[in-house]
Design goal:
With 329 residues, this protein is of the alpha/beta class. Helices cover 31% and strands 28% of the residues. It folds into two domains: 4-134 and 297-321, NAD(P)-binding Rossmann-like Domain (Rossmann fold, 3-Layer(aba) Sandwich), CATH 3.40.50.720; 143-291, Dihydrodipicolinate Reductase, domain 2 (2-Layer Sandwich), CATH 3.30.360. Strand 2, helix 2 (43-46) and strand 3 (57-58) form a beta-alpha-beta unit.
């Protein structure tokens, strides 16, 4: 399917999205970024395509969207809805559907209920569809276990673990999980918002529960640093004993005081790459992989789902709307 798309955000993920969209044969009609080092340059060259696309990266989003008239905006600029909300409104205003990597948009009613309602109403009024998706939230912690649950007659507890070797990830990922910090620096930086580590544990839990038809009483999430007991080194950081070499975080959903959903991320230098889904019930099963490459997978999810949202109902939707079934616990 040939779509007219605008790339909104040309950071590392936006560049991967650009390459995936080009491979899919989408018509890229504009690109938006505020980085002075990218503005004015050809998108194909910045994205590493090895050729010019004839699309200049511009900072004036209103102009690009108005002139490009995209069917879908492929958006990847931030993790928090309150910060990217004005950008989404610009796309809605010109009548473009949006699929975004914004983690908190995957289930925005948890952190931003008022903004979610405003966004939904504005999208409906403009006959536009908005979706937040990616690899996490969007696949490993939510869509994947929900699909696997179709093999279960009775589900008592779901546990998803994603483990990855942070030394293989890009600089910005290594920085946001606090590599090389002291434990105190990590906790202070996380509290101040200077680093985010993983964003979206609660969103994944609530999205999974919604798809599977579970009504949760409570949701919790937390993150703690993994402390090095030896020297480690990545392409970007040197880590001494006592410093942070990664993070372990989780989100949990409870019914009647019992944890029924747990999603856990282990991202550290030297960690094994794997994903494991454990479904306890009747019958009980365990599914395990050798790991999903996060950044390319996120780009693939965005590009592969873009044609799907064209014919979805207007408003703010979730992956539940695209997975056409629901498990009944």
């Amino acid at each position: 399917m040939s779509l007219r798309v605008v790339i909104y955000g040309v950071g590392p993920i936006g560049q991967l999205i650009t390459r995936a969209a080009y491979e899919k044969g989408f018509e890229i009609v504009g690109a938006i970024d505020i980085d002075p080092g990218k503005v004015g340059k050809d998108l194909g060259e910045v994205a590493g395509l090895g050729r010019a696309l004839g699309v200049k990266i511009e900072s004036d989003a209103d102009k690009v969207l108005r002139e490009g008239k995209p069917d879908v905006v492929l958006h990847s600029t931030g993790s928090f809805l309150d910060r990217v909300y004005p950008q989404l409104v610009k796309a809605i205003r010109v009548g473009s559907d949006v699929i975004s990597t914004c983690e908190t948009l995957a289930w925005p009613w948890y952190r931003y209920p008022e903004l979610a309602e405003l966004l939904d109403n504005y999208a409906r009024n403009n006959d536009v569809t908005i979706l937040g998706a990616g690899v996490n939230p969007g696949f490993v912690f939510d869509a994947l276990p929900s699909v696997l649950s179709t093999t279960i007659i009775r589900l008592d507890r779901l546990t998803v673990v994603r483990s990855l070797d942070a030394s293989k990830r890009r600089y910005s990922f290594q920085k946001k999980i606090g590599l090389g910090m002291s434990p105190e620096q990590f906790r202070e930086a996380l509290a101040r918002g200077e680093i985010t580590s993983h964003v979206g544990f609660a969103e994944s839990v609530l999205l999974t529960a919604s798809i599977m038809g579970l009504r949760l009483d409570k949701v919790e999430e937390d993150q703690e640093p993994v402390i090095a007991d030896a020297n480690y080194e990545t392409q970007y950081f040197r880590i001494s004993p006592g410093q942070v070499r990664g993070v372990i975080g989780h989100g949990s959903g409870f019914v009647n005081g019992k944890e029924v959903i747990r999603v856990e991320l282990r991202a550290c230098v030297g960690c094994e790459d794997y994903e494991e889904v454990r479904l306890e019930g009747e019958p009980s099963i365990t599914w395990r992989s050798t790991g999903t490459p996060g950044d390319p997978a996120t780009a693939a999810v965005i590009v592969n789902l873009a044609p799907r949202i064209i014919n979805e109902r207007p408003g703010l939707i979730t992956l539940k709307d695209l997975i056409n079934y629901a498990y009944t616990a």
